[in-house]
Amino acid sequence: MNKPKASKTDWVRVRRNIESDAPIPYSTEDGPYDPNDAKATAKYLAKATVRRPGQRGPQKAPTKERVSLRLSRDVVDHFRSTGSGWQTRLDAALQNLIRQRGA
Fold first, then answer.
1. Residues near 50 by beta carbon (within 8 Å), at least 6 away in sequence
2. CA-CA-CA-CA torsion for 19, 23, 24, 26, nearest 10 degrees?
3. Would you list the DSSP string of 55-89?
4. Predicted confidence band of residue 103 (pLDDT cuts 50, 70, 90)
5. 16 in helix, strand or coil?
6. Which 8-state DSSP code applies to residue 42?
7. 16: CB partners within 8 A, 6+ apart
8. In angstroms, rounded to a whole number, what is the distance separating the alpha carbons of residues 94 and 12?
9. Residues 45-100: pLDDT tens digits?
10. Tens digit of pLDDT for each residue in 10-33?
11. Measuring CA to CA, how many Å separate 96 from each of 38, 86, 88, 99, 100?
């Protein structure tokens, strides 16, 4: 399983700003809009795309086709015993066989 990426957010700064009524410190290097400007914030967020962790975006060019396939129990058991991603390894084995046969 993939290890989660470390956050680049300065959470101490975020909490300090939440607890304070003072404007959020901002310079042009900090980001594309001034968080103290409600109109700029709304304009920026209106264009935003929300992505949830663990959800993929749409495929740009689908490269695989979903099929229903009946395989021998020993073939399925062999590939499943190799752990997560066994379908990808089965696909790779079939592609390798095609390359070896020169088709």
1. none
2. -170
3. -----SS-----------HHHHHHHHTT-TTHHHH
4. low
5. helix
6. H
7. none
8. 52
9. 899 887 777 777 777 777 788 889 999 999 999 999 999 999 999 999 999 999 99
10. 888 888 878 888 888 888 888 888
11. 57, 15, 12, 5, 6
Tokens of 14: 């975020």
For residue 64, give the amino acid letter.
Answer: K
Question: Can you read off the two tokens belonging to residue 77?
Answer: 């058991």
DSSP state of 49: -
**pTM for the complete prediction?**
0.42
Question: Tokens representing 79?
Answer: 């590939």
Structure tokens at 83: 């752990």
